[in-house]
Amino acid sequence: MAGLVLIALAQRWLVPRLDFPALQTWSTIFVAMVLQALPFLVGGVLLAALISAFVTEERLRRMTPRSPWLGVPAAGAAGIALPGCECASVPVAAGLVRRGVAPAVAFTFMLAAPAVNPVVLVSTAVAFSGRTDMVAARFAASMATAVAVGWWWQWRGHAVPLTSGAGHQHATGWRGFADSARHDVVHAGGFLVAGAAIAAAVSALLPRQLLDAVSGSAVLAVLALATFAFVVAMCSEADAFVAASLTMFSDTAKLVFLVVGPAMDVKLAAMGAGTFGSGFAVRFVPAVLVVATSAAVIAGAVLL
Amino acid sequence: MNQQAQALLLVVVGAFAIRLGWTDEHLVYVRDWVRWPLMAAGLVLLALAAGLVLSQHQEQAAPRTAWLLFAPFVVLLLVSPPPLGADFAERTASTPYRDPGRAVSGLRPLPDGDPVRLDVADFYVRARYDAGASLVGRRVELTGFVSHDPDGAWYVTRFQIACCAADAVAVRVRVDGSEWSPARDVWVNVVGTWVDGSGVTRRSAAPAIDAESVEPTDVPRHPYE
Q1: Domain limits at B200?
Q2: Would you say residue A123 lies in a domain?
């Protein structure tokens, strides 16, 4: 509280002294990312709270296939119907896990929902002036990534402790709803901000000539845009427009950017670590990056 | 982070979200439509804060990382970020994303008016994909901020955004024939005609406008196209 008052008092003195162009660019992008994400985060948190407080484990069990091996592709298909930003899908996945849904199923949904929903596919079609091959390749590679990672987690992920496990909260009804929503906002919010700060720094400070310099080599171009997608953490609804503007790059490299970004970026990695624990993040993040990049390269070779 | 601090955090974030959505300040960061979800999210956060204050049950701690949620609002107060300008445009100067690609024949005829007001991106696209056919013989008026390049040329520049300023793409049109070379980030109105043949190929430099007048102007309500 005292800190806030101090900042308000210091404002008059500090503002003219913080007038560097690069700092201003970073600030604009940082605040923009947080503001854009905030409504999606709150929406996702409310949906997760609804699941936590009002959907019984029985009902959820009846809605999902009994075997997680079948549940994974079902969760991928459910991702088509639920347009969501990646910031919303992390708390929703946490809510599902708390209600006893197999983590592999929840993670597949978390990867699919921001990547294959109609809003993202339409914006991709618009950005690439109606190129249906790019839309199809994006859909196929993103769906393959979500399902492959889900199955991998079902196969190998049992030993990994998740901090957002069952039994985390007890209240149900409106009290439970409010508790769950508040808990998720303050947990995921701090990590979201940390990820946005890093991503904004990369956007504001990285000279794009550096990217263009590697665009000539097929392998380097793919790796560069996979890394770029991870560090700039763009919303999946908007990233196609930026991909289309990277005219120096091959279509496959652009596809890698479109598939890696919604699946995993610095903001999601931070939120994942904050929500499910660092033991989860060190396994899940690199696995998703590798699978998404490979899926995009294969889809690019076959479809583009 | 204890319960009081959490309530304060939710109030601060909620109040800022409502304020930014209510005023035009959000237009520096996000597209106009985001104002409504932003204000709704603010109301939800205020309601959660109220619920936390009114509820009598046991202390609920939150991790220390939650303090980070204050950061964007401290930055808002201390830096009061301006719309993206020359610094970012010069770093990322590239092509506009509303790229008609193969649909070259789809450009609509230029509207009436002398001079005719055009978006910077519209001018760019017409020069590049119509080989300037719709621009020949017409006086146009462009509004944007000034960015420079190392060769000493200056550009009337605008950003296009799809969702928020994080996905901004700079579009620029070189200004020729002006006596006045304004400083970077000055907003200007440029009236002139398209320089024949400029910016028509994929790899060529930006299109250019032969200016008959360059006037300083205010930052428009919507800084991005």
Answers
A1: 87-216
A2: yes
